[in-house]
Amino acid sequence: MHALIAYFSRSGENYVNGSIQNLEIGNTALAAKLLQELTGADLFQIESATAYSSHYSKCIDEAKADQRRNARPALKYCPENMAQYDTIYLGYPNYWGTMPMVVFTFLEQYDFSQKTIYPFCTHEGSGMGRSEADIRQLCPGAEIKPGLAIHGAQASRATPALVQWCGILEKTI
Question: Model pTM greater than 0.85?
Answer without folding.
Answer: yes
